[in-house]
Amino acid sequence: MMNGRRIVIWIIPLLALLGLSSGSALAQKAAPPPAAPPPAAPPAAAPPAAPAAAVAPYEVWVIDQSDSSKDGGGTLYIYDGESLAKDAKSAKAEKVDLGDKFAEACKEAGGFPKRPHMIFFTKDGKYAILSYVASGHVVFLDAAARAPIGCVSLGKNAHATFPAANMKLAIGANIAEKKLVRIATDYADKKFTVNDVVALASLETGAGLSDMAPICPIIENKSQYAFVTPRGGGLVIFDITTTPMSNTGSLPRDSVRPAGCGGVQIGSTMYLNSGGGWPATPLNHDVYAFGLGSLPEGSVPELIGGRSGGDSHGMVGLNNKYLWSGDRHLNLIDTYDTGNGNIKIGTVLLSGDLSKDPAPDLMDAAPDGSYVFAALRGPSPLTGNNKEVNNAVGSTPGVGVIKVEGNGRGGALVGIAPISKMVQEKDKEGKDVTVEKADPHGIQVRKK
Q1: Which residues contact 411 (CB under 8 A, 6 or more apart)?
Q2: Residue 226 in contact with residue 214, Cβ under 8 Å?
Q3: Alpha carbon distance 235, 409 (integer Å)
């Protein structure tokens, strides 16, 4: 017992010495705080956000088909695409006279080029094809140089000439003489030769085709077949690789209404329209879907939409999914979802504060699909207008800039680049008046 007490007595001073004997001792002599950890390294800076993909520079080409001289001609306006989209009203255009220099290029073809109507680029964007509707000339241009490199004649009329994707040929429509014309195209050597002409009037006696004047020959992406939309309605499909070009199938007027000109291929479907402006069909607007799997014979296309009392002309595809079909009489664009049963999903209304009567005609899209540019007709349209209804009359000639919304589901007119040509003439009473004669029509977008 004594020994136990001695041990306790001996341990207590030891604990006090070590500072562990009581709570007060712990409070007075607490263990020093641990050393502060070394300062943490600052967080690594986040990598800079990847810059938004730059939009490839592009140009918007639009043709004023009003005469640039007493002989004819016309004027090409070339806009920088980005500048046009940002501020259409202030955008400055490079101007090219489509008369004298182009007449020199057409010397062998004869005559003076008059009324430049339609323009299309080759697949690589290096060359343009310009059709003169009043004189029959087709001029080939070096797009970068803005200079003609060749010229052929289709006859009395050249309404539209479409290049094949393979760049080996182009197909032209001669409405006046009801002829389909093939042109062999050698851009590298600047050689352009008419090598086949098909008289279409011979088809009017059968297959329910009453007026075979070709409006537009739309070529599918494989460069073998052209869809020819006659003035009198119906549809004729030609194999454009044979000599002579061969009719592989035709559809009567009740399958496709008269005077179509719009054509857009999206995937394995060709979209076509019918249009107005002709005496027999002053107002006409239908949109059709044609499955390319039925070629070469063709099948009856599906009617996917249209407008009563409208006038369809321009069409454009967006983001390989949406189809836009314009109406120049009703001042609107209907949009279709080609990936969802070709249903109509919306309407872009164009008349408003910027223009009470824009009269949208042909259209094309920016390379990234962010804008659509439309040729807006003037108060004195030179082509495609039926004076009984004035389907092609507009109040603000120029280029309409339409901002695309919903990836192509809709859009809004956000600007107009005005094009003007004021001309003095006599009115019905013989008085001098100044009249707006500018009449934009052909329009295309080109990557620089």
Answers
A1: 333, 335, 348, 372, 402, 403, 404, 405
A2: no
A3: 29
The SS3 call for residue 235 is strand
Nearest partner of 214 among 206, 225, 203, judged by Cα: 203
- Total number of residues shown for the chain: 448
Q: What is the pTM of this model?
A: 0.87
**Residue 392 carries which DSSP code?**
T
Identify the CA nearest to 271 among candidates 328, 224, 222, 314.
314
Two structure tokens written together for 26: 């712990």
Q: Give the Cα separation of 255 and 233 in Å (integer).
A: 8
How does DSSP assign 130-147, residue by residue? EEETTT-EEEEEETTTTE
Give the Cα separation of 385 and 382 in Å (integer): 7
Distance CA 247, CA 257 (A): 19
pLDDT tens for 356-411 read 999 999 999 999 999 999 999 999 999 999 999 999 999 999 999 999 999 999 99
Give one word for 201, left, alpha or beta, with left for phi > 0 and alpha for psi -120 to 50: alpha
Contact 109, 425 (CB under 8 A): no
142-175 per-position pLDDT tens digit: 999 999 999 999 999 999 999 999 999 999 999 9
